[in-house]
Amino acid sequence: MRIGVAGVGRIGALHAQNLVAAVGAANVVITDADPERARATAAALGVASAPDVEALLAGGIDGGVDGLVVATPTDTHAALVLRAVAAGIPVFCEKPVAPDIASTRAVLAQVQAAGGLVQVGFQRRFDPGYVAAHEAVASGVLGPIHTIVGQTLDPTPPPAAYVAVSGGIFRDCLVHDLDILRWVTGQEAVEVYATGANLGDDYIRAAGDVDAVAVTLTMADCSLAMLSASRYNRAGYDVRMEVRGHRDSIAVGLEPRTPIRSMEPMTYPSEPAFPGFLERFGAAYAAEMAAFVSLVRSGGSSRCTVADALAAFVLAEACEISRRERRPVAVADIEAAGVLPGQQGRVSLEGVA
Fold first, then answer.
1. 181 and 322, same structural domain?
2. Are residues 138 and 196 in the same domain?
3. pTM, entire model
4. pLDDT tens, residue by residue, 173-205
5. Do 180 and 109 belong to one domain?
6. Furthest C-alpha separation in the chain
């Protein structure tokens, strides 16, 4: 078995490193638009490099690859996913699959028509804390869920050049919270209300974006979710979730490195805070690559499909419309080309105050 990695920037290089740990250096080959970066990364990891993606997919490197990891720029994702699927090659793709809802739907249709295997890079689904929360909700031990609270606080904002092409804080950052909300609860959101503020650098406002957001979502079972995000939390990277039920409540992300100070006699953090997402989710990134290797080797089902990526993208779009227009937005009004996974058309809000 051989797995190719297209794109070895920060996240692609991490995926390649995790693949080497999972399947051995002899079974990994990388390529990048920057040949020198590809050669340097390959030398550091002890793996082979290819001149381009064409060589990987066309079988020009010792018979080609059995799986492909796509970690290239966003505007190249869709084409690479579809080429791999057409060749019968399972593919892992960093989010987003495509830059907008329409093109994501088009990718989904072609993947489904071809029976392709695609895993999308929402790594929180592989984090031990979120996995445990998912299992707790599914088991019913918490009782009926009434409220979910989630947050992502970045230590510092991305550079201006990135913000300008990121798609905005909802699509770039909070989309992870939107995805994990769906996965942990097993519920779809039916309505969102979002607001935002600019409290930091002017270049974020200049890009038409905000640097702090708050979102309230009504779920299909009438439970409520409250999500927030900020580009500024210099104490450290802070990602958490609380799931509150009638019988019990649980939290994800409360640990010795959580960058929050308690006013009671408790010590947070008691260890150095997480400087960024790579450190906080290191184990999750390794686990998602191990899951992809299993998908390549044995088939099966993906924990995060293109349909899941589309559902999170639709919610992010609803959030952005809500923020700009300062009104609640029904999710069913956004997904104009068919129902979302788990929904059968518009869900009634009867019973919601």
1. yes
2. yes
3. 0.91
4. 999 999 999 999 999 999 999 999 999 999 999
5. no
6. 62
